[in-house]
Amino acid sequence: MARSAKKGAYVEPSLMNKVQKVKESGKKEAIKTWSRCSMVLPDFVGMTFAVHNGKTFTKVFVTENMVGHYLGEFSPTRTFRLHSGQRKSGAK
Q: Which of 1, 24, 50, 75 could be cross-linked to 30 through a Cys-Cys bond (beta carbons 3.0 to 4.6 Å apart)?
C-alpha cells in the first residue's frame, strides 16, 4: 500500500544526515544504509548508495527515474536459481 501524499516521503533521519555530510564534502563515496524503506528524493540523484540486502551491500546509483521509489526495490533480497524443468539440457 502506498504512503499517504499528505504525510510526504519517508526518509530515515540518519540517512538524511549522511546525505547532507556527503553533499557538503563534495566526495563521490557510497553511502552505506540499512534503511530499505526510505524513499528516493530528487536530492539523491547522482549519488551512490550501498543498500543492505540482508547479506551484502548492493551499490545503487540513483537516477531521475528512481525518484519516488524505495531504496529496497533496487537491492534484491532473493536470488533466482532455476525452475526444475530448466535443469534438463537437451531439446526434445
A: 50
Answer whether 41's CB lies under 8 Å from 59's CB: no
DSSP summary character for residue 22: H
Q: Is residue 61 a contact partner of residue 29, using CB atoms and an 8 Å limit? A: no
User: Between the CA of residue 49 and those of 3, 8, 14, what are the distances in Å?
Assistant: 22, 21, 14
Give residue 39's pLDDT band: very low, low, confident or very high (50, 70, 90). Answer: very high
φ/ψ (deg, to 5) at 16: -65, -40
pTM score, two decimals?
Answer: 0.82
Return the C-alpha cell found at 19. 546525505
